[in-house]
Amino acid sequence: MTSAASSANPAAMSIERLAQFADPVATPRVVLKVGSALLCGPDGAPRREWLATLAGEIAEAHQRGQQVIVVSSGAIALGAARLGLAKGGRGSLADAQAAAAVGQIALAGLWSELLGAHGLTAAQLLLTLEDLEDRRRYLNAAATLGRLLGAGAVPVINENDSVATAEIRFGDNDRLAARVAQAAQAQAVVLLSDVDGLYDRDPHEQGAKLLARVEEVTEAVHAMAHRASASGLGSGGMVSKLQAAEIATRAGIALAIVNGTHPAPLSRALDADLGTLFLPTRRDRGRKAWLGGRQRLKGALTVDAGCARALLKGGSLLASGITGVEGEFARGDPVAVLDPLGKAVAQGLAEYDASEVESIRGKRSEEHAALLGYAPRSAVIHRDQLVLL
After folding, report:
1. Angle formed by the axes of helices 173-184 and 135-150, to 10°?
2. For the domain bounded by 18-290, which CATH number is listed?
3. Where are the domains of the chain?
4. Is 311 helix (H, G, I), strand (E, B) or coil?
């Protein structure tokens, strides 16, 4: 197999092949993401025959003893077709929100009908970015998912586009699928795409090679991403899929990109081992997994090289190693940690607000009390509240 890394990652879990995504022992819980371009035709009408084959595969997974969560796009496309809106409902925020309000009913009904034909009960959850960024709401979503799956239902999840604005939305369902997998403690995520997986360059270029397995999403892997979405219906592309892979694999979740344009796409990909498998790189769980997947950060702290090395060895972030402070954040807000070259190496929850960090940055611990006017905390970001990227 072609690999994006030269050696196996010792933290990788036991999933080594796509075929294991159909194994109820290796992957008892799977998240399946379906994009707008697959669910709808160019006219915005649902591709019912294709969806019926996919619903059949979900039913087969249930019969094998697996639990499946569906993250489904398509509400805006379906709603725009019914309302006769231009540009697939994406001409303006108002159009997108109106289309989503109409399309969510159609989308939920579609999945309910198709899964119901196999004796399965569909359940709808609409989420915004904030639902998974706020810890309490994240736990509530996780509890709801667990109860639904325990009752035998198939949760069908979409971003709540009828109320979400640019500041509080994921913008694509690839990253949403990865965050849902974290909340649901799934073992695998499948992103259905319009190509067979990740290629080393634009797949339309001559000589492009499919990567069968990626052991780590490096800068070199990111450089391979092709930003275009072939259909124009969706909001994601390979860039967002790689971001989803980073979120999932840091939480010990395997992720696969496979071609969804064919009938019964899961069987085709898993039986032939055709797609790109991203191996887990860590086993972050609970609060660490939630923190590592956060998308909306309130600021950034730049650190010197020695501090960056200490963090990579598991240390807390101390004020003495901080060289710069960006943004306006309060205690408890999530912030990025940047190395001297500006590369994000970690993110975590600040123990001080921005102005306080500015006053103590570069200073030793014994100086903090006089600068702050109160007894200082042990770190600017404690290692228990910090996740390496």
Report:
1. 70
2. 3.40.1160.10
3. 18-290, 297-388
4. helix
pTM score: 0.81
| Helix extents (H) in 151-203 | 173-184
CATH of domain 297-388: 2.30.130.10
Each residue's pLDDT tens digit in the chain (389 positions)?
333 333 332 333 578 899 999 999 999 999 999 999 999 998 999 999 999 999 999 999 999 999 999 999 999 999 999 999 998 888 898 999 999 999 999 999 999 999 999 999 999 999 988 888 888 899 999 999 999 999 999 999 999 888 866 544 566 789 999 999 999 999 999 999 988 999 988 888 888 899 999 998 988 898 888 544 444 344 458 888 999 999 999 888 999 999 999 999 999 999 999 999 999 987 776 677 777 777 788 999 999 999 999 999 999 999 999 999 999 999 989 999 999 999 999 999 999 999 999 999 999 999 999 999 998 998 999 998 898 88
Q: Which of 232, 231, 248 is nearest to 289 (CA)?
A: 248
